[in-house]
Amino acid sequence: MKKTVLMLITTMLLTACSSDSNPNDGLPPETQTGANTFGCLIDGKLLVPRSGNNSVVFPLWGAILWGGIPNIEDYRELEIRDYKSPKSATLLLHMKKVDSIGVGNYNIDESNGMSNIDGLDQNYLHCTIFDEKTNSFQQYVSFDNSGVLKIKYLKLNGLIISGTFNCRVRNIQNFDDIIEITKGRFDIKASTIMQTYFP
Q: Using CA of residue 82, residue 26, residue 192, residue 119, what is the dihedral sign?
């Protein structure tokens, strides 16, 4: 009897951890080493960076970390693209003053759907996803107090920035259409991210 119960529990645990039943499979672990990883679930669907090529002349980066304009320390923007899925998503995370403020929690506020100097002067996030209902790509933007960005590790010498985020975003054309971005995590090293190929 004990063997039967033990086998049943083991089978249940193995089934619960299988990739068929776990939508979180494919998310990278949360690290703080500059591993150049990113992952999140947008409306339950996995987004990870996937490079289009590794060309030196015209690279199609899966992930890139931009510095502020005109001052690099004003903000950082992490841009994620999946070049291998025709109906996938892109995401941009704008992080204001992280170089000077450092580790801590940041509110994610309103996005106007733009980036760098055309974006708003605060922390924000926006993404583009393929909507099966409309058979078209739709842009979703964060709004005031719609999420939290947690910077968990920041090393300025060589710039490693690691953290997590969760956020609600709304369709830029229909504010009643709100979806969630969950289990976001990243671990980026600025000096090597542009040379990293994401398969």
A: positive
3-state SS record for 157-186: CCCEEEEEEEEEEEECCEEEEEEEEEEEEE
Q: Detail the DSSP E strand segments found in the chain.
A: 37-42, 45-47, 63-67, 75-81, 90-96, 104-108, 124-131, 136-155, 160-171, 174-189
pTM of the complete model = 0.86
Write the pLDDT tens digit of every residue in 139-172: 999 999 999 999 999 999 889 999 999 999 999 9
Task: Tell me if 181 sits within 8 A of 38, measured CB to CB.
Answer: no
Residue at 131: amino acid letter: D
Q: Return the domain boundaries, the chain.
A: 30-195
pLDDT band at 1 (very low <50, low <70, confident <90, very high): very low
